[in-house]
Design goal:
The protein is mainly α and 368 residues long. The chain contains 15 helices and one strand. Helix 7 crosses helix 10 and helix 7 runs antiparallel to helix 14 (315-322). The radius of gyration is 27 Å and the shape is flat. The mean pLDDT is 86.
Amino acid sequence: MSAVVFTPIESRPPPVATQGALGWIRRNFFDGWLNTLATLVTVAILLWLVPPLFGWSVLHAVAVPDNAACRAAHEHGACWGVVAEKGRLILFGRYPYEEQWRPLAACAIMIALLVASCLRPFWKPWLAPLWVFVLALCFILMRGGVFGLTPVETARWGGFPLTLALSVVSLAVAFPLAILVALGRSSKLPAIRAVCVMYVELVRGVPLISVLFMASFMFPLFMPQGTTIDVLLRVLVGMTLFAAAYLAEVVRGGLQALPKGQVEAAQALGLSYWQTTRKIVLPQALRLVIPAIVNSFISVFKDTSLVTIVSLYDLTGALQLALGDADWRKFFLEGQLFVAAVYFVCCFALSRYSRWVEGYLNTGMRRQ
């Protein structure tokens, strides 16, 4: 009988690292030949585009408000001097120059409360009354006429404060209205369901620009003679109704995605309709449609640029006012890029926050 010779097998290579920076890079950029090819192509395109863009926007750019220097460097460098020269007009529109500290303070207060509202420790019952107080305070700051503040009519409001106010106020009113409409469309009462369906289909069947036009020019024709409603209020109502119709369909999608057993279990426990809706149905339905809700929020924020057609100059409208100066009209691209950067920062921050909320609320249901 021959002796058995033990032959050890060769050592296998160590497992590929999946943790740390190197593991993250390998997992996201070099996971397979197709991903690697896409990464290499993307890097090649960036190497081709970034150097000339960097030279145009930074190395050869003019940052001082010097029109002659901007015209001299126009062929090979950007003129950010138009932002330095017309920045206050772009940001605050036609608001009186000496009073622009008021919209600045109103924006700071509103943004601070927005940031606080995004933090979990501030999700308390007193947050809603605080929002009412802050919105009233911001309106007093912008409108004036009390506490020694110079009155400023709403027709002169503009720039970023107007964009922020239109989006925040319209969404704050539209969201609870959308929930009621979505519940109405799911109601078993034919009259309520028919009214909600008619409202949603009627508003969604026309573009926002038509709604703003009717709110600004057609609605006053139906008012009694001598009765006038501020144009800003009419625009706010139009934007609110328009946003509520789209949000209602988003919320209804969440209601339909909820398993029927959730409602049956609540009924078996003896909960009333409103208790079931408030404690069982809505929390789960809204969690399911967080990405779609945030998408609607971002759309409303960007759609505020349409109010220019009714002579309200938001951020984009104020830019057009600034570019009315013939000396700086040539540098419209730099002004548009500045406004686009403001929109991008706001929308990107909202998008990232929605991802955090989605992950926070789906901690126990996340798929691995």
